[in-house]
Amino acid sequence: MKKSTKSGLFVLIIFLIFIAGYTLYTIRSSFIKDNLRNSTTDTYRVAEDSDSYDPVAAKTYKNQFIAALYIEGTISEANVSYNQKWLMNTIRALKENDKNSALAVFINSPGGAVYQADEVYLALQDYRTTGRPVYVYQGSMAASGGYYISCAANKIYANRNTLTGCIGVIMGESFDLTGLFERLGIKSTTIHSGANKNMMNYNEPFTDEQKAIMQAMCDECYDQFVSIVAKSRGIQYNTCCKLSDGRLYTAKQALEHRLIDAIDSWDNMLRELAENELKKPGIKVITYKYQRKQTLYDMVTGKALELENAKAAAQLGVPVEVMKSINNSDRFTPMYLAQ
Length: 339
Prior knowledge:
- This protein is an alpha/beta fold.
- It is built from twelve helices and eleven strands.
- The protein has helices spanning 3-32, 55-58, 84-96, 114-128, 145-150, 178-184, 208-233, 237-243, 251-256, 266-277, 296-316, 320-326, and strands at residues 43-45, 65-72, 100-109, 111-113, 134-143, 155-158, 163-165, 248-250, 262-263, 284-288, 335-337.
- Strands 1, 2, 3, 5, 6, 7, 8, 9 and 10 form a nine-stranded mixed beta sheet that branches. A two-stranded antiparallel ribbon has the order 4-11.
- Strand 2, helix 3 (84-96) and strand 3 form a beta-alpha-beta unit.
- The radius of gyration is 26 Å and the shape is globular.
């Protein structure tokens, strides 16, 4: 082999090793680290054109700000658009920041896990102990857990096209595949102690006792939800129960039922908060928004799971959604989630 050919091959091998190493490093780093960052570059002032704006008076609060906090995506521990740790830390940090005058929370979410939704609700309630107001603005959807969090606000605003409400609880589906397995000659056994330890697994029938157990959990979460709505919105509990049948409401319907306070724009809500609530027209607004770029690791593992579900579903002759549910580790988790 010629010397130049050997040199070229050596360079190519080194280059490929470098690319492979860099790719593995990127995957590992993105897997370990959440890639959190605040979009705090989006800073502007609100209501500077107000008749009550006084440039001299505004100097006294020139360093103060309203935090525009965005809650978007399905509420869970962490996903591409939502991160519980980041959100809780951000609320806590804003509470401890003396320059922060108020929270303007933008919610665009179908809801999610009961535990995480309640954590955020309690964190916003804790923030309000400072005497600073919390205004919520509902985007295209603020349903179930998204509405649950909204109840922590002093006032709730919605876009005229918002879908909200969906007050109810849902838990994972149970698929009994024992009959199918029997026809296919498949035997699946789970070794367990306790009659209900394996409940909702696909290889055992779902008993009436187990259904009652799960229903009791659902009912407890539902009562908590309804009680919070009734208290925060000043609606009698029995009346609230009638409204809380799991349906979505349009903004107009929600306003009629007192589930929200106003239908307006995000900008007008900020103006109301700055000018009339805080009496600080011209105050700064700083945006806090979770951002996580989808990594190569996310794409590879997500695609692999999707293909695996499709392959298994085809082999068993069941819908892909059944396989997704079987592989769903959250099937025992109560959810405030719009379906």
